[in-house]
Design a protein that fits this description.
Elements (H helix, E strand, L loop, with lengths): L18 H10 L4 H33 L3 E3 L1 E2 L4 E2 L2 H14 L2 E9 L4 E9 L4 E8 L9 H21 L3 E3 L12 H13 L4 H8 L12 H14 L1
Parallel strand pairs: 1-7
Antiparallel strand pairs: 2-3, 4-5, 5-6
Helix pairs in contact: 1-2, 5-7
Length: about 230
């Protein structure tokens, strides 16, 4: 009685050949230095593309899980989400998705630029940049004026690049946004041009600085300054 031996089918294991594999094979076969350099460029492009894809997957997953940020600090007639409190709500979630954030600051001639950089563990980074004038309202000295603007720009670059939204604990879910740094700079320059008293103008708007003018008051503020200029 003969027994049939059942052979298990040969399973071909597919593997992706990367540019680094090609470099290894090429170096073993005596490929020229120029050709190896081209393969190395291909490897770098491939790696960058893979890192960007990993970043996009991570940031998409992060945004899907990210909660609304609560405004827990009290300002003059407004509430806001402080940077430390915002990061406190986000750090664990960022780490879960292999993301980290950092900032760099540049002192321009009359303004301050703050850039927020988000980096994935695989190496890809993306950044956003905002520029603003030193916050000279109140009795701040020059260092405090710079520090106030840097703190503000750090918060808003973080919110912009991560796609965050804030919510007041007592505002029934209404999101309260300020004008952009560019719009604030435009209004401040316009105030100087029409020789408006900036402190009185900000008091009239019930804000501490141009950076803290609510977005829905931008058009009215600009119109008021233009009207003052037309009277001269």
């Amino acid at each position: 009685m003969s027994q049939k031996v059942q052979k298990s089918p040969n399973v071909e294991q597919s593997s992706v050949i990367t540019p680094l594999d090609l470099i290894n094979r090429a170096s073993e076969s005596g490929t020229s230095v120029d050709d190896l350099a081209k393969l190395w460029e291909l490897h770098q492009s491939y790696t960058a593309a893979q890192s960007k894809s990993a970043f996009e997957r991570a940031i998409t997953a992060f945004r899907a899980e990210c909660p609304m940020i609560e405004k827990t600090r009290e300002g003059h007639n407004y509430k806001y989400a402080g940077l430390a409190e915002t990061l406190g709500q986000l750090q664990d979630l960022l780490a879960t998705h292999d993301l980290s954030v950092r900032w760099k600051t540049d002192q321009l001639v009359h303004e301050i630029a703050v850039t927020c950089i988000v980096t994935h563990v695989d190496g890809h980074s993306e950044e956003t940049r905002l520029v603003g004038s030193p916050d000279t309202t109140g009795s701040k000295n020059s260092i405090q004026a710079v520090g106030s603007t840097v703190s503000y720009l750090e918060r808003y670059t973080l919110m912009a690049i991560l796609g965050l939204a804030t919510i007041d604990q007592d505002s029934d879910g209404v999101v309260d946004e300020f004008i952009t740094a560019a719009e604030a700079a435009h209004l401040e320059k316009l105030a100087e041009t029409v020789k408006a008293d900036k402190k009185k103008f900000l008091t009239f708007l019930k804000v501490e600085s141009f950076l803290k003018i609510p977005a829905d008051k931008y058009s009215a503020a600009e119109a008021a300054l233009n009207a003052k200029g037309a009277k001269k």
